[in-house]
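From the shared-data thread, chain only:
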Amino acid sequence: MALERIAVVGAGAWGTALAQAAAIAGRSVTLVGRDPAVIDDINRNHRNSAHLGHQLLSERISGALTLPDAELVILAVPAQASRAALQPIAAGLAHLPVVLTAKGLEHGTLKRQSEVLADVSPTAIPYVLSGPSFAADVAAGRPTAVTLAGDDPEQTSAVAAALAGPTFRLYAADDRLGVELAGALKNVYAVGCGAVDGAGLGASARAALLARAFAELTRLVVRMGGSASTLTGLAGLGDLTLSCTSTQSRNYRYGVSLGRGEPAGSDLAEGVLTAPVAQALADQVRIDAPLIDAVNLLIEGNSSITEIVAGLMSRPLKREED
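Structure, as tokens:
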């Protein structure tokens, strides 16, 4: 599988970081965006100042406003924008490997990102990239390890090899559903952990929430057909831990603001958009998900974090493995 020419759709911080990683890996990369000023900055100055500040980009990266001829496409737009971003380029994705990097579930349809891709371009070949990673770290060449899941082991390994570099390591996996769900749902739990910290409830409370979030996530993923072993890896425990404990996480920061009773700000927090979808999915497959329910109450403003935690603490006692 020749994968020398890569197009990254989405010229925000994450798309630019992935373009940088692919360029460091030796690929020729076109970063596709909507803002002519951003594209001009990339081509003239080898920077994306609007989204990554003064980070210098590889000369292997060029910017464009339209999808070029490519052998691999990476989609790096927010989850709720995926369908709109895919529709105008659907014909150009036919039979191509498409790496999906958004961590979220689509409103209304409850669909995962690969299901959205299948709707828009049925013959595109889906891969899912997820794991503990921040755009600034990847773009700066700080050591990062992620999971790449696909349906064909040999082809998945080939795509992983095409994107891997000295500081960006990809582990190939075959549980695409589990990796996708873990990436989407961890953002919901990150909002909850941030709220616990914002309310000053203590490190013990956050650790307990994180552990029970892992248990709840595992129940939901397994019920929907994913593998429990996926949750012990980078796309599960690794990403959940990072998102639930780091101030670099937009979802965690959003939760901190809610916990403090402050305006949450304008930062995009995928967990806020995914929370009601996750709740609908849990109801659909009949999984008890008290933490997802609690995060929805918090986001809706129907209860304070202290009231929600008190409710969780008063639930009937049960064995930990249940």
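The first helix runs from residue 13 to 24.
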